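Throughout our pipeline, every protein is held as a single compact record rather than as scattered files. Such a record has a labelled line for the sequence and another for the backbone structure tokens. The remainder of this section carries one protein's record, kept here as part of the documentation:
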Amino acid sequence: MGANFDVQYASTQLHGAICEASFVRWWGSAIGPDVLLFSNPFSDPPDYARVNMTVQYSVDSGATWQPLIQVDQGPSAYSSLAPISATTFGLLWESGQKTAYEMIAFAGITASSNNQ
């Protein structure tokens, strides 16, 4: 029917608000040939607030993660990532001044091998 998944594990490096996040594989990116991107409101315990929309990346299939860019310091919530080209990816996310639900924001983000 379908392929089986390998062993699964939870990363302690990817924390934040209990909130929908985005995860995408970026083949042939300027950062590397096989990059994983992850976006979420990246906040610390104990409150895990829905703020600080951040994109992180992994070049080792998710074993370790590095911050790539803080996109929005303010309120933020659900997000969606999409590769656009070898150097650019798009991020769509909920954002606002007082709450994370005032508008939908979009950013085209350029990354390079200098991000490693």
Q: What stands out?
A: Strands lie at 22-27, 34-41, 51-58, 66-83, 88-95, 103-110. The chain has a mean pLDDT of 89. The CA atoms of residues 7 and 87 lie 31 Å apart. The radius of gyration is 14 Å.
